[in-house]
Design goal:
Blueprint: H1 3-15, H2 18-25, H3 29-43, E1 48-51, E2 54-57, H4 59-83, E3 90-96, H5 98-103, H6 105-115, E4 119-125, E5 139-142, E6 151-166, H7 167-171, E7 187-189, E8 213-214, H8 218-226, E9 231-235, E10 245-247, E11 254-264, H9 271-292
Parallel strand pairs: 3-4, 3-5, 7-8, 7-9
Antiparallel strand pairs: 1-2, 5-11, 6-9, 6-10, 6-11
Helix pairs in contact: 1-2, 1-3, 1-4, 2-3, 6-9
Length: 301
């Protein structure tokens, strides 16, 4: 069995399709199919089961998977040992919720690319949990700590969220001095059945039962607030990007959440991935602190 065969096996396992694996590897899907058939013949085992959704791992494929991942990690470690501790190079794909991806990661990744010109960073902003076993991302940032899986989990930093509105909206309505005076105001928040993590259920903190204007994207919610469409819970670190948006009732409605960095357990032995994780963690902590220090004054009540 050759490493190139295992590389193609891993790509199909992670993509669950021949075409997806082909895109990952920059080869034709039919070639991927032939290589998988050749590997199955050589091993005398069926590695995948064709389903309407794509290619699922057969029991034999499930047993092969951890060994293929170990070989991948060992090869990466060998490359690092030969290249030494110089600049970080290669591709890094980071999965993150869209608030972090929009307001924090661009600045952090810009500095990383400046410090390490050979580094290629991909930011995947999706409102869901990433599957690191399928290598949808090399590392992921989450808003809650996972409770299962072969993972390295590191708490990065706490961040704050508050109720906020735009000056245009606030100027058009009477002053809001208490939670009770929020009744009758248009609230902006998540679509209830698309909240993928309980830590994102912000609206209950305001006492509101539902959002009249809702999105599965926190960035869309912020832009709606910026447009004067209503009030909503927002990340403090996002407010400096939106002139005219101010916190209100910050002494009565205040939320604290955490960012967690999640990596595949096999990456623990990778000096490169450890260095990237350290750099990303330091960057997020520094950027959250910097942006929260730039908050404008709260809205007058």
């Amino acid at each position: 069995m050759e490493w190139d065969d295992l590389r193609i096996f891993l790509a199909v396992a992670r993509s669950e399709s021949l075409s997806g694996a082909g895109r990952r590897l920059a080869i034709d899907a039919s070639t991927v199919g032939r290589r998988i058939a050749r590997l199955e013949a050589a091993l005398g085992a069926k590695l995948f089961v064709k389903t309407p959704q794509g290619y699922a791992l057969a029991p034999e494929g499930e047993r092969l998977l951890p060994h293929a991942e170990a070989a991948e990690a060992a090869l990466a470690g060998a490359r690092e040992a030969l290249s030494g501790p110089g600049d970080l190079t290669g591709q890094l794909r980071i999965g993150a919720p869209d608030g972090c991806a929009n307001y924090l990661l661009p600045q952090i990744c810009a500095r990383l690319c400046q410090d390490h010109p050979g580094l290629e960073i991909q930011i995947v902003a999706l409102p869901r949990v990433f599957n690191l076993s399928r290598r949808e991302a090399d590392m992921a940032i989450a808003v809650s700590q996972p409770q299962a899986g072969r993972l390295i989990v590191q708490r990065l930093t706490d961040y704050q969220l508050h109720l906020a509105g735009h000056d245009d909206y606030l100027d058009a309505h009477p002053p809001i001095r208490s939670r009770e005076e929020l009744r009758g105001h248009r609230m902006i928040g998540y679509i209830p059945d698309m909240i993928f993590d309980r830590e994102l259920d912000y609206l209950t903190e305001t006492g509101a039962e539902w959002a009249q204007l809702a999105s599965n994207s926190v960035s869309v919610q912020m832009q709606a607030i910026r447009a004067g469409a209503g009030l909503g819970i927002v990340h403090d670190f996002a407010i400096p990007f939106c002139p005219g948006v101010r916190r209100l009732l910050s002494d009565q409605i205040s939320l604290v959440r955490s960012f967690w960095l999640i990596r595949h357990a096999d990456d623990r032995r990778s000096e490169r991935m450890n260095r990237l994780a350290d750099a990303l963690g330091q960057g997020i902590r520094a950027e959250v602190a910097r942006l929260q220090a730039l908050l404008p004054e709260d809205a007058s009540t």
